[in-house]
Design a protein that fits this description.
The protein is of the alpha/beta class and 268 residues long. The chain has 10 helices and 10 strands.
């Protein structure tokens, strides 16, 4: 019972191979309930394989895994009741509208009041104005927001986000980051895989690095920084990052466009 209260995910000596290729060679990790946990690794490190095992989509070759207190091998149905998974690409029906996508998932999960559930999520994720539009007209960031909203139907206690910002522009990435923070603030445990170091730095309570099939280091960002030699203090002029420049310019452009519109109306 103590494990279920304090630890959302516990992994011990997890192993998985594809024929002669050993992908996971004995992975150990713990994820605290209500936290954001980031699993870092380069392409091919085994991140997606680990997520597929933790979400019962793939059977491990060895080791033990409990998710929300349930064993993934002997109690997979109980695990699935506790979790939701969002993959690298938005799993939305582009022909349906945003509202229809949400209503469909709510009905499939037998959630009471599917239309109200859909409307609540559309409002929460800033999609209410686009609710009646086909998803094919949505931007990449809007699709990802809808995808995450769909994954929250039924109130999962743990959500897996497998490289959720792949292919998104800077503004859309920041939107997703804010959503992840909001999920954790509301008590949802978030298991995040990413190859973007800045993403883990901004979001994660704890970080683990998966390399060649094993966790080579794990801890908070402060703990990981202690592994390096002390930084030398130098006084330099800080230049804005490209992301800051992009957001500043596009924000100013939108503001100028709005002012131009107001002036046009005034002249009319």
């Amino acid at each position: 019972m103590e494990e279920k209260e304090d630890v959302a995910i516990r992994v011990r000596a997890l192993r998985k191979s594809y024929k002669e290729l050993r992908v996971l060679k004995g992975v150990d990790l713990d994820v605290a309930r209500g936290s954001v946990f980031a699993l870092l690794g380069s392409n091919g490190a085994g991140k997606t394989t680990a997520v597929r095992i933790l979400t019962t989509l793939l059977r491990p070759d060895g080791g033990t895994v409990s998710v929300d207190g349930f064993d993934i091998v002997t109690q997979p149905a109980r695990v699935r009741e506790s979790i939701s998974l969002t993959g690298q690409f938005a799993a939305v029906d582009e022909i349906l509208t945003g509202r229809e996508n949400l209503v469909m998932i709510a009905k499939l999960r037998h959630v009471p009041g599917p239309r109200q559930t859909a409307d609540d999520l559309l409002e929460r994720f800033g999609l209410a104005d686009a609710a009646g539009r086909p998803v094919s007209t949505y931007s990449g960031g809007m699709r990802r927001r809808l995808d995450i909203a769909m994954s929250l139907i039924g109130g999962p206690r743990i959500i897996f986000l497998d490289e959720p910002t792949t292919g998104l522009d800077p503004e859309a990435r920041i939107e997703v980051w804010q959503m992840v923070k909001d999920l954790a603030d509301n008590g949802t445990t978030v298991f995040l895989t990413t190859q973007y170091l800045d993403e883990a730095e901004k979001l994660a309570d704890r970080i683990a690095i998966l390399h060649e099939g094993t966790i080579i280091v794990s801890g908070t960002l402060a703990e990981l920084r202690e592994l390096l030699p002390p930084a030398q203090v130098e006084y330099v002029e800080r230049q804005p990052t490209l992301e800051e420049i992009f957001l500043s310019i596009t924000g100013s452009h939108r503001g100028a466009a709005a002012n131009d519109s107001d002036e046009t109306k005034a002249m009319l």
